[in-house]
Amino acid sequence: MKTLTGEKRGAAARAAGINSRRRERLFYTGMAALFIITVFAGFARTYYLRPYFDASSLPWLLHLHGLVFTSWLVLLLAQTALVAGGRTDVHRRLGVAGAIVAALMLIIGPLTAVIRAKVVEVPPGSVSPLAFLTIPLGDMLVFGILVGAGFYFRRRADVHKRLMLLATVAILPAATARLPFAFIQQVGPLAFFGLADLFVLVCLIYDLISRRRLHPATLWGGLLLVASQPLRLMLGQTQAWLTFADWLTRWV
Questions:
Q1: Does residue 172 fall inside a structural domain?
Q2: pLDDT range class, residue 185, cuts 50, 70, 90
Q3: Long-range contacts of 61-65 (CB under 8 A, 24+ apart)
Q4: Is the pLDDT reported for residue 68 higher than 70?
Q5: Is the residue at 79 inside a domain?
Q6: Number of compact structural domains in the chain
Q7: The dihedral of CA 48, 53, 57, 61: what is its sign?
Q8: With helix as H, strand as E and coil as C, how does 24-50 read?
Q9: Cα distance between residue 66 and residue 105, in whole Å
Q10: 10 Å Cβ neighbour count for 25?
Q11: pLDDT-derived band of residue 21, with 50, 70 and 90 as boundaries?
């Protein structure tokens, strides 16, 4: 009798473990897919479907920027799908490509932001490009910290996958700022940061449901991401930053 009860408990535990892994794989693959949908929706008019809305050509740097950043999103989806399919061996080998793409992003992203701050004209009364520069450069700084930590903890799957998701959330404000909703342009950074931060909230909720507590990587990574946003907005209004940004744009 005791043996039968033990076997039932063991079977129940194995079934629970299988269901947990299925939910986990669905969550990470689903998040990667949502990232792609968000970025496509944000950049559809100005990049992915640009020929249908604007016949003018884009500078080669913006094409390179779009190619590299899109590659990161596609790689993230591929990596989560590989893990979901049990191909962790391929996942690890493809991680080398992920590291290369991340390094390229940390070069091309800031370079593009600085060049655009120098050449883009804004309407009178809008935030100056030099002040706004804290947003894209801040995105790349947070991305670099989180993705670097993610690769460092690549042998800790529970930490690694959470940091990779949050690193990708860090670069989403550029897409959410371009979503075709009037309130985003009216509200400004509070709107597009808030929309991106919804993904952080989803990660927190997932931890609470799946683990009954927050994972430290989600907690501290999410805190870094969200706390950096008001800080960089305040920094952009200081004379010290404006002087530094002006100096920075003179180099490109």
A1: yes
A2: confident
A3: 61/108, 61/111, 61/112, 61/115, 62/112, 64/108, 65/108, 65/109, 65/112
A4: yes
A5: yes
A6: 1
A7: negative
A8: HHHHHHHHHHHHHHHHHHHHHHHHHCH
A9: 10
A10: 16
A11: confident
**Residue 91 within a domain:** yes
- Checking if the pLDDT of 124 tops 50, the result is no
Q: Is-contact 193 96, C-beta < 8 A?
A: no
Residue-range definition of the domain harbouring residue 154:
20-249
HEC per residue, 105-128? HHHHHHHHHHHHHHHCCCCCCCCC
Which two structure tokens, joined as six digits, stand for 65?
């920027």
Determine the average pLDDT of the residues in 15-41: 84
At 54, list the tokens: 């604007």
pLDDT at 107: 96
Q: Which amino acid is residue 174, in one-letter code? A: A
- Give the lowest-confidence range in 77-91, 95-109, 205-219: 77-91
- In this structure, the number of other CB atoms found within 10 A of the CB of residue 120 comes to 9
- Tell which phi-psi region holds residue 178, choosing left (phi > 0), alpha (psi between -120 and 50) or beta: alpha
Longest Cα–Cα distance of the chain, Å, equals 82
The answer to whether position 8 is within a domain reads no
In this structure, what DSSP letter does residue 58 have? Answer: P
Arithmetic mean of pLDDT over the chain: 89
Looking at residue 75, its pLDDT comes to: 96
- pLDDT at residue number 123: 44
